[in-house]
Amino acid sequence: MKHLKREKVEVIFGYPGGAVLPIYDKIYDSGLFHVLPRHEQGAIHAAEGYARVSGKPGVVIATSGPGATNLVTGIADAMIDSLPLVVFTGQVATSVIGSDAFKKQMYSASQCQLQSTATK
């Protein structure tokens, strides 16, 4: 959070989930304003709107697995429109990746590969 504050970030858009809950404690403690949508897609598109209107990067946080994949369209849209976004997603513990412990095997396909076509 200190790095976000140093960069003068004031607003974070995001939807909490297991993998990012510890980060949410830090957001609360930091005093940054958090916008809680009803879905991750709402977060990414709200961040796009914020970036479009303010000229500042929209900052988004979502949990791992389907939380991360729900951001794909908004990330691609922001890239096409040259809107600045900073997107954070969670990840399950390295020791359980591939074990299907979280029933997210289909979502553990490389998020980096999935998002790479829509990022700079």
From TrEMBL:
Enumerate the InterPro entries for this protein. THDP-binding (IPR029061), Thiamin_PyroP_enz_TPP-bd_dom (IPR012001), TPP_enz (IPR045229)
One Gene Ontology cellular component term attached to this UniProt record is: acetolactate synthase complex
CDD domains for this protein: TPP_PYR_POX_like
Q: Which SUPFAM superfamilies match?
A: Thiamin diphosphate-binding fold (THDP-binding)
Give the matching Pfam families: TPP_enzyme_N
Q: Which GO terms describe its molecular function?
A: acetolactate synthase activity; flavin adenine dinucleotide binding; thiamine pyrophosphate binding
Q: Name one GO biological process term.
A: L-valine biosynthetic process
Coiled coil (UniProt feature)? none
Name the Gene3D superfamilies on file.
3.40.50.970
Residue stretches making up the Thiamine pyrophosphate enzyme N-terminal TPP-binding domain? 3-106
Q: Which family does it belong to?
A: Belongs to the TPP enzyme family.
What is this protein identified as? Thiamine pyrophosphate enzyme N-terminal TPP-binding domain-containing protein
Q: Which organism is it from?
A: Bacillus safensis
